[in-house]
Predict the structure.
Amino acid sequence: MRILAVDYGEARVGLAITDPTCTICQPLKVVSRSEALKEIGRIIKDCQVKKVVVGLPLNMDGSEGEMASKVKVFAGMIRALGVDVELVDERLTSYEAEGILKQTGLSWRKRKKKLDALAACLILESYLRKTENASGC
């Protein structure tokens, strides 16, 4: 079984996936928002994904804003593909991903292409840590 993570954005959607044992995760790809659902469906089928973790963008005080509502609608569309979906707090993951990528010395353009997939990977790592002793996988 694999777990797929989604970092949903206004223009781009970052994807990350675990290995079959759910112990290691890696950034997978960044796709346009318009192609995201189709690509997620393909990955679910091809990689035998049993769960999708979707980053929920909460405000710093924990409240939900307009983007959180959009993410919940998108998560519902993923759930309609027949897979279990969990929402996970994603506060500061894009900021953390940007910091990691800055250390690589890549130009802004190259970092931008990798940012959302790395943010999805950070969301997935957070989820795996929280479910380590539970039935996360």
Q: What stands out?
A: The radius of gyration is 14 Å. Strands lie at 2-8, 12-18, 25-32, 49-56, 84-89. The mean pLDDT is 85.
